[in-house]
C-alpha cells in the first residue's frame, strides 16, 4: 500500500467512525462493503423469513448443518449425525471447543435451548416455527451429543437445520440481555461478529478469529441498506460499495453496468420465483373463472423477453427448475385474450371494473413488470391500478392481515430447494402468507408429504400440489429470476449463491 493509499484508508476509517456510513467509500484494506436493499428489523433467527436477513446472518450464525453454493449438505456445528427409530430420532454429535462470539461455550445445552425457544412461546411470535413443526423435543445425551425427537420423519429437516430459524443461539447471553437486546445485538458462533447496527442505515461485521472453521480472510464487512436500486448501482459505479446483492440490480441497467471496466455482473440460476397472488377471499378475484381469465390475459413470455432481458424463465407453478417437486412437463396457461374476455363475461364482470395490484415500492424491475401486467389487463377490460408499499409494510402488515387489493406481489426464495418450503407457507390454512384461502383437501396433501421418506412418492405428491393449485389459479405465476450480483473487480474469490445466503469467509479485496 502506498503512503497516499494508507492515508486515504485512515481517513475513510475515521469518517465511518464519525457516523458517515452512508457516504464512506469502501477502500479500507480488508473491508468489503455490500449494498443490501432491506433492513429486516430484527436479527433474531426466529423472527424472520427474509432473504436479506440471511445474506447477513449466514455470516453471524451457524446451524447444525450447512449448505454451500453447490447445494450439498455438509456438517456444520454437528460433526456427524445418525437416524434411529424410523427417522423419528436423529442423534447429533457436536463439534467440541466451539465458542460463541462472546466467549460463551457452544454445547448440547445451547442446542436444546435454541429449539425449545424456536418451538416455544418466543418462536410462536415469528414465521419460522411451522417450518420445524416435526420437532417434538431435543434431549441432551451428554455435553457434546443431542437427540432430536420428531413427531414424524421430515425428509427436509436436515436442510432446514442449515438456515433461518434453526441457527444456534447463546442461552446465557439471551438470558442476561433479554430478547429485545438480542434482536439488535445478535451473537452466534459464525465467522463474523456484529459490532454496530444502525436501523435502516447499515451495520458492521468484524472477523471472529476464533471461529471453528478458521478466521475469515476479510477483517470487516460493512452493509449499507440502500432501498433505491438506482442509488445502489450508482454507489457501485462510484466505488462506494463493492457488492450489490439480489434483487436490487434493475435488468434494464445491466448493459450500462457491463460497460464499466471496474464492475462485473455475475448471475446464477436461482430458486427465486415471482408471482402475483390473488385475493381469493373477496372481490372479483374470489371467482376462479376471473382468476383464470386474468392469467390468460397476460403475455408473460413477452414480459420476460422485453423487460427481463433473458435473465428469467417462465413458470407454471410457484417454483423454479431447482425445486424438488417441480414438474417440467407442466405448462403455463397460454396467452389467450379472447378466452380471457369470454371468461370475464361468463363471470359477470363488467368492462372497466377496477382492481388494485399491490407491489414492493423499491423493486424497480417488478414495477415495470406490474405496469405491463396492468396494460394487458386493460386490454381485456379490467382497469388495474398499482399501489406501491414500503417492503416491510407490505410483508408484515398488508399481506398477513388480508388487506391487499385483488392481486399482490409475492417473491419467494424457496431456499431449501424443496417445494414444501414454498407450498406449505403459501397454501396451508392459517399460514402468514395465506390470508384468504382455506382448502381442506389441499391441507391434507400438504400435510401428507411431510412425513414421507420415499423420495419418488413424495415428489409425486408435491407435483400433484403444483397441479392442484394451478387448477385453482391461486396466483398468476410469472417467472423464475436469476440471482444477479453487481461485483467490483477488486473483490476476489466471490462465489454467487442461488439463494443469496452469502458465506464470505474466503472473499478478499484488493
Structure write-up:
It is found in: Periplasm. This is Peptide ABC transporter substrate-binding protein. Belongs to the bacterial solute-binding protein 5 family. This protein has 510 residues and is α+β, with helices and mostly antiparallel strands. The chain contains 17 helices and 21 strands. The chain has helices at residues 3-17, 51-57, 108-119, 121-124, 157-160, 171-177, 179-184, 229-238, 254-258, 288-296, 300-307, 337-346, 364-379, 391-398, 419-427, 440-449, 455-472, and strands at 31-36, 65-67, 73-75, 78-84, 89-94, 135-142, 145-150, 192-198, 202-207, 220-225, 243-244, 263-268, 273-278, 312-314, 353-360, 382-389, 407-412, 475-481, 483-488, 491-492, 508-509. It has a seven-stranded mixed beta sheet with strand order 8-9-10-1-11-19-12. The protein has a six-stranded mixed beta sheet with strand order 14-18-13-17-15-16. β15, α13 (364-379) and β16 form a beta-alpha-beta unit. α16 (440-449) packs antiparallel against α17 (455-472). The longest helix has 18 residues, at 455-472. 48% of the residues are buried. The model is unreliable at 1-28 (pLDDT under 50).
What class, by secondary structure content?
A: alpha+beta
**Rg measurement, Å:** 23 Å
Calculate the terminal CA-CA distance, rounded to whole Å. 10 Å
Query: Would you identify the regions where 5 or more consecutive residues have pLDDT less than 50?
Result: 1-28
Global outline: globular
Strand neighbour order, sheet with most strands: 8-9-10-1-11-19-12
Largest sheet: 7 strands, mixed
- The share of residues in extended strands comes to 15-25%
